[in-house]
Amino acid sequence: MSSFRPTRLVSAATAAYGVYALAKPSHLPDALGIRGGERTSYEGLAKTYGVRDLLISTAGIVGGQRVRRLALGARITSDVVDCLLLNQKLSDGTARKKATAVTLAWAALNTSVLVADVTKG
């Protein structure tokens, strides 16, 4: 079983975010400028992201080659879905731009690692 270090590194970064999202779910509404009663909804979303990302990243860290690649695919899909969901939920243009930039940047990073992993054999 060969190990492609970048795959495991981005999985570890995803795990770190998962832990952070669970430890401080207020980071999401804070980053998006959410105030008032909507904060609770975004904190719940952050917790959901945390659990999901820990599950995906665990597979990406400890799984075999096929599982690691599937984890990257799941991460990419999750980021694109997060982008669409947040763009639908957010009414503030600045918050939408921020959410789009972050989610699509992570999707692009994971895509580049997946392509490199596959092409390295």
Tell me what you see in this structure.
The model has no long low-confidence stretch (mean pLDDT 95). The termini are close together. The radius of gyration is 15 Å and the shape is elongated. It is mostly helical and 121 residues long. The chain has helices at 5-23, 27-32, 38-62, 65-89, 93-120. The protein is 85% helix and 0% strand. 26% of the residues are buried.
Concise overview:
The protein is mainly α and 121 residues long. The chain is built from five helices and no strands.
Overview features:
121 residues; 0% strand
Radius of gyration: 15 Å
Q: How much helicity do the residues have?
A: over 70%
Biggest pleated-sheet summary: none
- Give the CA-based shape: elongated
Alpha-carbon distance between the termini? 12 Å
Strand content: under 5%
Order of helices and strands: HHHHH
Average pLDDT taken over every residue: 95
Derived structural class:
mainly alpha
Poorly predicted spans: none
Please give the count of helices: 5
Please tally the β strands and state the result: 0
